[in-house]
């Protein structure tokens, strides 16, 4: 077991897969000699050269199109978005090309493409750099979407994503790169379509993902001291949603809370609630509680920014209210 930062876990996954398969390469802004904005590709250009760790111009639509084209013709590109919100400039390439080409070509083309990079609400990064884009991409057919929350699942998910023959978006949270934890020394993979049972319990099912996993666990520590026993599920896979794991938990708890950093309107929680109501309504003893970010551009002011995002104490109060 090695204790590593989350950004180092991602770097290890990239290095191992590039070493194993010469068709894997990285492209994006400042991924080469600078080593990436959050050092996920630090020094890899020394080992693999400037064509496999490819610095691109500030032209997201262009280099995403190049990535799709290389994926169609046999390579396995990893696109790093310096900030995931910048990739809105490449939305057409991600949607109309990456997501749809396997279908519209009648299966003649595979798109083994990984799109990864930092997102979420950071610390005073301003509205344009603090976007929660999960729901933007969730509606695109043909994509797989995962969100890492620990160094362990970051490495396992990225390795699985690189080997998958479909386009995969890996969301990394800008405030989790310096999270440090133990990961196995031996090679491992994490499925792209399974949630993780973080804590077993029987009072209420709390479903969350990404940075909110850590807010939930802070709240759970307080709740346990006060005699509550919540179950916690980290979604990990945002598309497809592992609704089976959620339903198995609901058979025990019969109560569901979803905690997300995504916007409330049309967010990931909204999709979960719709699927639960469609398929497992009879398992519920009370309405689903949804704790989501405010539907506003993220303020630059630190206090207002904090108020935009769900905090641990709000989770504690919401659980107590549900179980009162």
TrEMBL record:
Gene3D superfamilies: 3.40.50.920, 3.40.50.970
CDD domains the UniProt entry points to: TPP_PYR_E1-PDHc-beta_like
Keyword Cytoplasm belongs to the record: no
Record key words, sorted: Chloroplast, Metal-binding, Oxidoreductase, Plastid, Potassium, Pyruvate, Thiamine pyrophosphate
Chain segments annotated as coiled-coil in the UniProt record: none
Single GO MF descriptor: metal ion binding
Organism: Polysiphonia elongata
Pfam families in alphabetical order: Transket_pyr (PF02779), Transketolase_C (PF02780)
Cofactor requirement: thiamine diphosphate
Stated name of the protein: Pyruvate dehydrogenase E1 component subunit beta
InterPro entries: THDP-binding, Transketo_C/PFOR_II, Transketolase-like_Pyr-bd, Transketolase_C
Task performed by this protein: The pyruvate dehydrogenase complex catalyzes the overall conversion of pyruvate to acetyl-CoA and CO(2). It contains multiple copies of three enzymatic components: pyruvate dehydrogenase (E1), dihydrolipoamide acetyltransferase (E2) and lipoamide dehydrogenase (E3).
């Amino acid at each position: 077991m090695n204790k590593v930062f989350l950004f180092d876990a991602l770097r290890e996954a990239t290095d191992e897969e590039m070493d194993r398969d010469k068709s894997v390469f990285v492209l994006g802004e400042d991924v080469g000699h600078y080593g990436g904005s959050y050092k996920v590709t630090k020094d890899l250009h020394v080992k693999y050269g400037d064509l496999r760790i490819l610095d691109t111009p500030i032209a997201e639509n262009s280099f995403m199109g190049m990535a799709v084209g290389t994926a169609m013709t046999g390579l396995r590109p990893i696109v790093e978005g310096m900030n995931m919100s910048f990739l809105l400039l490449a939305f057409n390439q991600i949607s109309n090309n990456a997501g749809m080409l396997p279908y519209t070509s009648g299966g003649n083309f595979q798109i083994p493409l990984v799109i990864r990079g930092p997102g979420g609400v950071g610390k005073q990064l301003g509205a344009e750099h603090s976007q929660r884009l999960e729901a933007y991409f969730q509606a695109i057919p043909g994509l797989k979407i995962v969100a890492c929350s620990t160094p362990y699942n970051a490495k396992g998910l990225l390795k699985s994503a690189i080997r998958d023959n479909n386009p995969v978006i890996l969301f990394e949270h800008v405030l989790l790169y310096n999270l440090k934890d133990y990961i196995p020394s031996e090679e491992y993979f994490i499925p792209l379509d399974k949630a993780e049972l973080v804590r077993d319990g029987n009072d209420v099912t709390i479903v969350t993902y990404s940075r909110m996993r850590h807010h939930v666990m802070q709240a759970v520590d307080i709740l346990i001291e006060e005699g509550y026993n919540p179950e916690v599920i980290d979604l990990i896979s945002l598309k497809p949603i592992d609704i089976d794991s959620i339903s198995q938990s609901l058979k025990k708890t019969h109560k569901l809370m979803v905690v997300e950093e995504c916007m409330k309107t049309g967010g990931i929680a909204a999709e979960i609630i719709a699927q639960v109501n469609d398929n497992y309504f009879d398992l519920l003893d009370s309405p689903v509680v949804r704790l989501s970010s405010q539907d506003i551009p993220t303020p630059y002011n630190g206090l207002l920014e904090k108020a935009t995002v769900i905090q641990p104490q709000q989770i504690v109060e919401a659980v107590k209210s549900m179980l009162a």
